[in-house]
Design brief:
It is built from 9 helices and 10 strands. The protein is of the alpha/beta class. Strand 9 and strand 10 form a beta hairpin.
Length: about 240
C-alpha cells in the first residue's frame, strides 16, 4: 500500500534522511526502530507532508503523492499521530476529534462509534478539555483523532512515550485490531522494544538517516535485533 523510494530530507543545510526506502502493506504493522536522532520522526513527517522532502518518491495504493501538503495527504487517507500528541488543550475531547472533519466530505462528518468502542474513555470525557486529560488519555485522543479521517495509512510516532503500562497495553490491542481489519497499512515508530517487536510484521532499522536493515519479523531474531539496537532498559 505504501512505497517510499529514495527519500531524502533536509533541515536548512543539514541532510537528515539519505535515500530511505520503506514499504508498508495493508493488514500489517511495519515498525521503524532505532536510537534517538536517527531520523525516524523526520521520516514520518516527510511521508505525511508535514515537512517537505528534498527528493525521492512516495506512492500510496499505486498513486504517486507528489508534493502534496499535509492536509491534501490527509484527504487521501494518510493519518498521522505525532510525537507529543499535539492535541488542542483548550478544546474539548469531542472538539479535538471534530478537527478531523475538515478532511472529510460534509456527509461523512461524524465521530464513528467505533472510536468510542476502541477508546471508551473518550466518550466518558467528551466534554472535558483536552488539556485536563492525563498523558495516556491524550494519547488515546490523538489516535482517535487520526482515525476520524478513516485512514488507509496510519503513521504512529512513539505512541508509548510517557504512558502508563495499562494504557500501553490498550494501545497495543487497538493497533492489533486495526491491523487485523486488513484495510489499513500501519507504520509504527517506537523505541519500547517489547511493544514494537510484539506488534511488528515487518521491521526497518534506521541509523544516521539511512535504513540499515529491513525484513520480516520471522527473518529478524529478537536477540540479534536487540543487541544491534542497544536498547538498554527498553526490553523486559
Amino acid at each position: 500500500m505504501l512505497d517510499v523510494q529514495g527519500l531524502t530530507l533536509h533541515y536548512g543545510g543539514s541532510q537528515i534522511l539519505h535515500g530511505v526506502d520503506l514499504q508498508a502493506r495493508a493488514g500489517e504493522v511495519t515498525c521503524v526502530m532505532g536510537t534517538n536522532g536517527v531520523g525516524k520522526t523526520s521520516l514520518l513527517k516527510a511521508i505525511a507532508g508535514v515537512h517537505p522532502r528534498s527528493g525521492g518518491t512516495v506512492t500510496l495504493n499505486g498513486e504517486s503523492l507528489g508534493r502534496l501538503r499535509a492536509d491534501e495527504l490527509a484527504r487521501r487517507g494518510v493519518g498521522l499521530v505525532p510525537q507529543g500528541r499535539m492535541i488542542f488543550p483548550l478544546l474539548t475531547v469531542r472538539e479535538n476529534l471534530e478537527t478531523g472533519f475538515t478532511c472529510l466530505p460534509r456527509g461523512e462528518r461524524r465521530v464513528p462509534e467505533e472510536i468510542y468502542e476502541l477508546f471508551p474513555v473518550l466518550k466518558q470525557m467528551q466534554d472535558r478539555r483536552g488539556g485536563d486529560l492525563s498523558g495516556g488519555q491524550q494519547q488515546q485522543l490523538a489516535i482517535g483523532r487520526a482515525l476520524i479521517i478513516r485512514p488507509k495509512l496510519l503513521l504512529l510516532d512513539e505512541p508509548t512515550e510517557g504512558i502508563q503500562p495499562n494504557i500501553i497495553q490498550q494501545i497495543g490491542r487497538v493497533i492489533t485490531l486495526l491491523r487485523d481489519r486488513g484495510d489499513m497499512a500501519i507504520v509504527l515508530v517506537e523505541q519500547f522494544f517489547d511493544f514494537a517487536y510484539e506488534l511488528a510484521d515487518r521491521i526497518s532499522v534506521m541509523t544516521r538517516g539511512r535504513v540499515a536493515f529491513a525484513g520480516t519479523k520471522a527473518e529478524t531474531p529478537r536477540e540479534v535485533l536487540l543487541k544491534a539496537l542497544s536498547f538498554e532498559g527498553k526490553a523486559a
